Amino acid sequence: MLRLRVKELLEERGKTKYWLYKGLGMNYQNFKRMINNETKSIRYEMIEEMCISLDVTPGELFEYDFEK
Hints:
By secondary structure, the protein is mostly helical. Helix content is about 55%, strand content about 10%.
């Protein structure tokens, strides 16, 4: 299962979910589902914005869980 590492990346950078939410400018319910890995799709533009905001590559933003 592919999953976002947003929470871990925010913690490493000393940033909050609220900081990222405001920076992305998206609906809160969609944001919450996305960072909790409860969504089935993410727009490329949103992936790019998260990478820029967190100063990471897409490879650092996602991880693959082989056990699921």
